[in-house]
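Section 5.1 Outputs to date
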Amino acid sequence: MGGRGITVETAILLGARFDTSVEYWMNLQRMYDVSKLYHEDAQLYERVKSIKLLAKKMELA
């Protein structure tokens, strides 16, 4: 797979066609991009998990 992501122009057109917001389509693209990055860079994913865990521990303290 692969190809191009959803552009703002495409999001506008999809929103008009499916009666949804531009933000809906842009958020889908953003979530896909983040998910793809985590899968491609396991070290980044582990660092983010560590930061979240540390933040949660600090919150409980």
